[in-house]
Amino acid sequence: MSNNLEKEWQTEADFRRIIFMLVVGFCYAIAKFVLFGIILFLATSYLATGRPNDRLRIIGAQLSTYVYQVFRYLTFNSEQRPFPFNDWPDR
What we know:
Layout: H1 2-49, H2 54-74
């Protein structure tokens, strides 16, 4: 009896993990396009002014850290769920 209950719970936990992975994967797809836009704008800003935009550079660093957290979660190297289930990374 106890063995069946444990298997059922594990299946439910696995199902939840897969749902979270789908949501996080969708967030990654959005982040990828935003990061690409930031990269293009930073390059343009650098060519125009001779230095990168500091605010966008910081946002780019945060987004890069977020993408790293996403990959760690999706590859089962971390159990800590990234944003939107936890705080946005500082850098």
